[in-house]
Fold this protein.
Amino acid sequence: MTANECIKGRRSIRKFTDQPVSHELLSQIIETASFAPSWKNTQITRYIAVEGEKKAALAKCTNLYPGNGVIMENAPMVIAVTVITGRSGYERDGSFSTPKGTGWQMFDAGVASEAFCLAAHEQGLGTVIMGLFDEEEASRLLELPEDRELVALIPIGYPAEAPTAPRRKTVDDLLSYQE
């Protein structure tokens, strides 16, 4: 699969078979995703694979959008994407390197999450990145240390659907040139 095929072929999957995701395959996906670029190579993104009873409890942290809980319940695994705070966008003395402030860590997490999803797609797995959940309750359930922030939840598994691509904006809508 070429990068072009992988990017254009990946879809957000919301229905999964009950076939489990092997820990070995997940490790391969994480190893690939670890090559995502990050601010000054800080590599702040960390992944927590959630299965079984804890996954069922995590699915209940979706009161902001209950449909996400249903998707999570039906996925064999959910990946909690977290970041180590206070590093991306900062200098070693704790000052900001960028006017984006703490926003840069979200950029890094987004790049890492998409790298993860593309690596999963290449291996025949489906994913969907979720941002609507009770962050405080989910973080408590995951027992995150103080220096970590929960950014997204990604259900992962073998797709039980093959959605078509939604309409895309044209290059003319997306691209402009300046001299």
Summary: The two ends are 37 Å apart (CA to CA). The longest strand covers residues 148-157.
